[in-house]
Amino acid sequence: MIQKPRDTAEYLVGSCANCGMMNIVPRHKGDGCTCADCGSGPLIPLGYGILQGDRVTTMHVGVDVDTSQLDKVGELVEKIADHVDRITDRVAGLKEEVSRLDGADIHGSTRSETI
Q1: Beta partners for 26?
Q2: DSSP string covering 10-39
Q3: How many Å apart are CA 15 and CA 31, to the nearest integer?
Q4: Which of 10, 38, 74, 78 has its CA 20 to 30 A from that of 97?
Q5: More confident residue, 34 or 31
Q6: Is the pTM of this model over 0.85?
């Protein structure tokens, strides 16, 4: 029994009828595809192709983020927290002073003495 050689062409190569850009699509999806570049042109089949090299199974993506604004916000939050702490300390001191003065009249005697 004679075995046929295995079909190795997994991709269809086509040229866009509008912009001329070459498109390579999987062979089973070749019919009815439009150009990936201009988005509207129909593909004119040129033949089948073999993708050389290893297939990509993973992709690593790096992202650079400008955090300078976040750093400024963090500094402002720290300043606000410091101010709130100082205000809290002042209020606590005032409460102690009011409690101390609440028991005495203007002349320094306690309320229990004046009653």
Answers
A1: 11
A2: -EEEEEETTT--EEEEEGGG-TT-B-TTTS
A3: 13
A4: 78
A5: 34
A6: no
